[in-house]
Amino acid sequence: MSTSTPLIELANVHFSYGETPLLDSISMSVSRGEIVALMGGSGSGKTTLLKLISGQLSQQSGSIKFQGEEVTSQTHKQRLAMRKQMGMLFQFGALFTDLSVFENIAFPLREHFQLSEQTIRDLVLMKLHAVGLRGAANLMPHELSGGMARRVALARAIALDPLVMLYDEPFTGLDPISLSIIADLIKELNDALGTGSILVTHNIPESLKIVDKVYFMSSGKIVGQGTPDEILNSTDPYVHQFIHAEPDGPVAFHKPAPSYTADLGLGEQP
Ligand SMILES: Nc1ncnc2c1ncn2[C@@H]1O[C@H](COP(=O)(O)OP(=O)(O)OP(=O)(O)O)[C@@H](O)[C@H]1O
Question: What CATH fold (topology level) applies to the domain 1-85+164-172+196-251?
Answer without folding.
Answer: Rossmann fold (3.40.50)
